[in-house]
Amino acid sequence: MVEELINSPADGTTPRRIADAYVHALADLDPVTAVYLGLNPEDDRLPDLSPAGQEELADLARRTLAQLDEAEGAAAELDEAERRCARLLRERLTAELAVHDAGENFRAVRNLGSPLHNVREAFTLMATDTDEQWEIIGRRLARVPLAVRQYRELLAEGIERGLLSGPRQVTTVIGQIAEWAEGDVAGGWFGSFVQGAPEAQREALSATAVAATEAIAELRDWLRDVYGPAAAETPDTVGRERYRRWVRFWTGADLDLDEAYTWAWGQFHDLDAQMRAEAEKVLPGATPMQAMKWLETDGPAIKGEEEARAYLQGLMDQAINDLQGKHFDLADPLLKVESKIAPPGSAAAPYYTAPSLDFSRPGRTWLPTLGKDSFPVWDLVSTWYHEGVPGHHLQLAQWTYVADRLSTYQVTLGGVSANLEGWALYAERLMDELGYLTDPGHRLGYLNAQMMRALRVIVDIGMHADLDFPADSPYKPGERMLPDDAREFFGRYCGLSTDFLDSELVRYLGMPGQAIGYKLGERAWLRGRAEAKARAEARGEEFDLKAWHMAALSQGSLGLDDLVAELSAL
User: Fold this and answer.
1) Which of 116, 139, 160 is nearest to 347 (CA)?
2) By the 8 A CB rule, do 25 and 61 touch?
3) Which residues lie in coiled coils (predicted)?
4) pTM for this predicted structure
5) Which of 57, 206, 298, 535 has an alpha carbon 20 to 30 Å from 262's alpha carbon atom?
6) CA dihedral sign, ordered 249, 50, 39, 193
7) Phi, psi values for residue 387, rounded to 5°
8) SS3 for 353?
């Protein structure tokens, strides 16, 4: 059926059918994507990470665009649902092909979201309830060495073409792989993972885990001895041309970078003033950095990984209980979300994984512990409103719930990062508006999170687009923003740990354009809400925030070029 929809004439084929055929075709080519979506549970393969495998994915995108051209040309008129799906599919695939055609896949060494990271994370999302499911895990685990060899082939081709990642990414990933390979159990992280298998299967799985870990350790050595020296002179930043391509990929918009940079500096000055006022409430006479340092070392904290997991679960359960029926109308499958501890060797930032399409795997939040056993709560509260409820979970789980009314593509692979992250940052602000962040420590944590997102816009654009610190900057006014200066500036105004901020800088350098979507996406969500409210009041109607929330969360993915207009019309 999938090949028929992708390759057949357009007669009777709609954009939504084409989009959903693309989802299934991609899931067949990329079994890790299938795991994320909850498709093909019997599949034990891993994706082909070689240059040929990457080209096969690009060919699928090109064929899908050709099919979409044919369908749109044959249709006299498309209804609103088909038009919106077609627009998203075209924009997303075009943006992805632009990245592919520029050879960015050959540079895929980064501390988050690389093909190697995705392979490991897929195992954390696989079902582990039955012997048969563990057998599938074992067969997939046995394919890890092949996937690693293919990934190395991809990177080696990048060396030949002069398309390499920056040295900070290489050093960081070498360290991450070393952590994956370590541990008290043979086979490192994979060895620990298979300890949960039934006893009758454990010995064979453990041997397979050792082989997988040995392959990854060999990759670590190759990165150190071959790739690292080859990449030593590669700039860590990407320059304006490459950056604009990545901005379109992450935001679904051709942004005015200079306008966004200037706007973010205005946000910085406003947030700095708010944080100074809140810091006085936390610790009289303290600066924001002093107050946050006190909260980190002497403020309320949760002791123990399991206790931290349970605390975060309680935050989400309470938020669902309080918001349901008042500010959101949530279907039963959305009422379950799980708090998890992230596996060792993860990046420092917490994250969320969406439910499977059938909700057999619920949405999950993940806390990286980074070897810690004590977890200050001052910055966790707003973070879990962002990652869990009402943030990523309500949007992505609602998209999954309404997939049959839209298209599977619109609520899964078509997700635009700036839309998702913008909603999650809006969700933090909503909880502040609703009075959930009145504790001075919690509110300072929220303001610090807002400051971090404003600083992300500043440093991400500033570094990659070769801009200067402006004249009103409190740090090096008029000087070019280089990575080391960006990290120093970031650390002076964001009260998070040194390890976290170091990881963040590497992330921005390795995923150019992604980090700006949080604050700029929130700006789009706020503008859309304000315009929808103004339109309702102009009609003499009371603005129904709950109805607006559910309509907004049920329209599927949109890029920032379209988001404000669509939200305003709800």
Assistant:
1) 116
2) no
3) 61-98
4) 0.91
5) 535
6) negative
7) -75, -35
8) strand
The whole-angstrom separation of Cα 365 and Cα 118 is 16
- Angular region, 77: left φ>0, alpha ψ -120 to 50, beta rest: beta
Measured distance CA(446)–CA(311) in Å, rounded: 18
Separation in Å, CA 229 to CA 16, 105, 150, 167, 185: 47, 19, 20, 9, 32
Chain segment 222-280, per-residue pLDDT in tens: 999 999 999 999 999 999 999 999 999 999 999 999 999 999 999 999 999 999 999 99
Q: Letter for the amino acid at 155? A: L
Q: Please name the amino acid found at residue 48.
A: D
| Type of residue numbered 448 | N
User: What number of CA atoms fall less than 13 Å from residue 130's CA on the CB side?
Assistant: 5
CA–CA separation, 393 vs 421, rounded Å?
Answer: 11
| pLDDT in the model for residue 7 | 37
**Backbone φ, ψ for residue 404 (5° rounding):** -70, -20
How far is residue 343 CA from its own chain's centroid? 16
According to DSSP, residue 355 is labeled P
E strands present in 297-418: 301-303, 337-341, 351-353, 363-367, 374-376
Q: Which two tokens stand for residue 139?
A: 């067969």
Q: Residue 480: beta bridge partners? A: 468
How far, in Å, CA of 68 to CA of 480, rounded? Answer: 44
Contact 163, 181 (CB under 8 A): no
Question: DSSP string of 86-140?
Answer: HHHHHHHHHHHHHHHHTTGGGG---SSS-HHHHHHHHHHHS--SSHHHHHHHHHH
Quote the distance between the C-alpha of residue 366 and its chain's center: 12
Q: Where are the alpha helices (DSSP H) in 324-407?
A: 380-387, 392-401
Residue located via tokens 């920056």 = 166
* CA 501/CA 479 separation, integer angstroms: 22
Residue 12 binned pLDDT confidence (cut-offs 50, 70, 90): low
Distance separating alpha carbons of residues 171 and 100, to the nearest angstrom: 24
Strand partners, 376: 301
User: Which amino acid appears at position 477 of this protein?
Assistant: P
Closest CA to 525 of 382, 362, 390: 390
Can you list the positions of beta strands (E) in 430-536? Answer: none
Question: Which amino acid does the sequence have at 239?
Answer: G
pLDDT tens-digit profile of 130-155?
999 999 999 999 999 999 999 999 99
Strands 337-341 and 363-367: parallel
Q: Which residues neighbour 431 within 8 Å (Cβ) at sequence distance 6 or greater? A: 319, 382, 385, 390, 437, 446
Contacts of 202 (CB under 8 A, 6+ apart): 194, 195
Rounded CA-CA distance 365/391 in Å is 11
What is d(CA 275, CA 96) in angstroms, rounded to the nearest whole number? 39
d(CA 548, CA 545): 5
Contact between residue 446 and residue 425 where contact means Cβ atoms under 8 Å apart: no
Token pair 């609602």: residue:
398
Alpha-carbon radius of gyration of the chain:
23
Q: How many CB atoms lie within 10 A of CB 102?
A: 15
